[in-house]
Design brief:
- The chain has 286 residues and is of the alpha+beta class.
- The protein is 33% helix and 24% strand.
Length: 286
């Protein structure tokens, strides 16, 4: 394999250059200085190298702005040009300023509302990560929401899953003789590593069943209202197709705030629906 052409630290700085220029319309050396703790000379060198080696012509210097702005021919080279990339930078900056309250990263005019992270300890997560990496079984004490009773389970984990509201591990459960989702915040004590795992990801039928979730505006909306949602979600021909698998389909619907058991009486409250619900139904009730 040929070596990666750009050092990781430089790649992160080049990505910052593109994201800030594209989404804020003004890039200065201060963005790099405050975000990466580098000197002004290095920040200036990074911008010049980006323009010389990565994306010639992408940025132009604006004397009135006293900074760089995207040129009319701007084409992302180390990013995709998606808004999420800017939001990730804002999120990372928020995390840093929570830990280091006096750190100024230049995003003081942004406020983010995020759900509280559920109570997960590193003592719980580390053995699970190790078990996945080393293909081992894990003995855990688990408390389900069903009855609140702590039980012992031996699992063979294969994937950590992060949803907007929680972390869980997808694993084969020897008690259930099937694959289950175990919420990390409900694991008690410290998981104990055991011998080699019993079943791996390739045996997880639901995980290996590819699906798409097809979303569309609620048909009870007017055409004008539906067009607003088409634009909101970047739908093509009135539909948004989200690739996933059968094990994750419920979490995809949760992420879009779709309750499969309730049809909102107000279509403006419902907004979007699952167009291929009949296809997905068998994977939603188990």
């Amino acid at each position: 394999m040929r070596k990666w052409p750009i050092r990781w630290d430089l790649l992160f700085r080049y990505r910052m250059i593109e994201v800030i220029a594209l989404w804020e319309g003004r890039l200065t050396t201060n963005h790099l200085i405050k975000s990466f703790g580098i000197g002004r000379q290095q920040a200036s060198k990074d911008i010049n190298t980006y323009l010389a080696d990565i994306a010639p012509g992408n940025l132009v210097y604006d004397k009135q702005l006293k900074g760089y702005k995207p040129s009319d021919s701007f084409i992302p080279q180390v990013t995709k040009g998606h808004a999420d990339e800017y939001l990730h930078i804002l999120s990372r900056s928020k995390d840093m300023t929570i830990t280091f309250k006096e750190l100024d990263m230049g995003f003081e005019n942004v406020s983010m509302i995020r759900p509280v992270t559920r109570n997960i300890s590193p003592q719980v997560l580390r053995p699970l990560v190790q078990a996945i990496r080393e293909k081992k079984r894990v003995d855990i004490s688990y408390t389900s929401l069903k009855d609140g009773i702590e039980v012992e389970r031996i699992i063979s984990p294969h994937t950590l899953v992060c949803t907007p509201l929680r972390w869980h591990v997808r694993a084969y459960c020897e008690h259930a003789n099937d694959y289950r989702d175990f919420v990390l915040s409900r694991i008690r004590g410290i998981p104990c590593l055991e011998a080699k795992r019993v079943k791996a990801r390739e045996h997880d039928v639901l995980w290996n069943t590819p699906l798409t979730v097809d979303l569309m505006p609620d048909p009870r909306l007017t055409e004008a209202q539906a067009n607003v949602l088409v634009h909101d979600y970047g739908m093509e021909e009135g539909s948004l197709t989200i690739p996933t698998n059968a094990a994750l389909v419920r979490y995809v619907l949760d992420a879009y705030n779709i309750d499969i058991n309730v049809l909102d009486t107000n279509p403006k409250g419902q907004q979007i629906i699952v167009a291929n619900f009949e296809e997905l139904k068998q994977y939603l009730y188990f």
